[in-house]
Amino acid sequence: MDEILEILEKDARITPEEIAKMLNKSPRKIREMIKRYEKEGIILGYKTVINKELIRDANSEVRALIEVNVTPQKDVGFDKIAERIYSFPEVKSCYLVSGTYDLLLIVEGKDLHTVSSFVAEKLAPLENVRGTVTHFLLKKYKEDGVTLKHREENKRIAISY
Questions:
Q1: What is the pTM of this model?
Q2: Which end of the chain has a smaller Cβ tally under 10 Å, C or N?
Q3: 64 and 117 share a domain?
Q4: Does 79 lie in the same domain as 32?
């Protein structure tokens, strides 16, 4: 992968001037390359990794990993059913994977009931879906290469002898 892309992937806030210094290139050249990557769809967006564990509130969402077994369609394979599934707003990510299941989804909802309703009422009834397995995320330790720090809470009861 290009050095500029590697740098931006680690820190999207870094300026073209800083990248230029790191790579011993002109800031103008770096800006042109970034603009080209954006135009060609290589750079799709810029993202902030937020530790939602530290900002839990009434609007916190529940996340689940859902394994989906599907029947591929003639002439289009998995693409059409994947497109149908990832079009749902609840689906944040969709991957074709090897193994027992075909698709891996990351789904978000306001609570467990919302996610389970999505699976029961929208996902499972789809014509080419043969089965699903849902795993609710309980705690995140690392996301997108960033280790998430957690509040230190010692909830253990002290034991004395």
A1: 0.75
A2: C
A3: yes
A4: no
